[in-house]
Amino acid sequence: MALLKKYRFAVFSLAVLMTLFFFDTPQGITALQVTAFSVKEMLMIVPPIFILLGLLDVWVPRETMVRFMGTGSGVKGVLLAFFLGSAAAGPLYGAFPIAAVLMKKGTSYRNILIFLGAWSTTKIPLLLFEMTSMGVPFMLARLLVNIPGILFIAWLVDFLISDDERQRLYLNAEHLAR
């Protein structure tokens, strides 16, 4: 029963897919093809991310991460968080396991938020696509809005979150990163 409760969303989605397949077979086949494509794509992205996470966890000592991205890292930590997030490839769901390992290694909460913001909005492949399809002025205008926005949101959330909540998040991240 606990297993069913844990995977209730997947079971519900499967039931909806089967119902759709029963009532509208062509639409059900299309939905099944889209689902299979998404699962295949995810299986091609997630294993390399977890391999890199394992290497990061083993090769980078906690003291090094605290020095470069911890609470006292200042501008150096912010720039490194931006660089790591911008240089990343893959969908946003790949950033969250990395963020959990960074939290386990002692990265400040603000730098975690900057990393996630950079991953979602300033990735280098995205910038290259924008530059070629929409032009340099658009790309630069978006960056000039997004970068201060990421910094402001990271600062605001870091300021508003209580120490108890921050501690709970770090404990959850450490539990998940095992």
From TrEMBL:
The keyword Cell inner membrane does not apply. GO terms for cellular component: plasma membrane. It is a multi-pass membrane protein. It comes from the Bacteria. Belongs to the UPF0718 family. Coiled coil: none annotated. Signal peptide: none annotated. This is Predicted permease. The chain crosses the membrane at residues 41-60, 80-103, 140-161. Keywords: Cell membrane, Membrane, Transmembrane, Transmembrane helix. The lineage of its organism: Bacteria, Bacillati, Bacillota, Clostridia, Eubacteriales. It is found in: Cell membrane. Its main location: membrane.
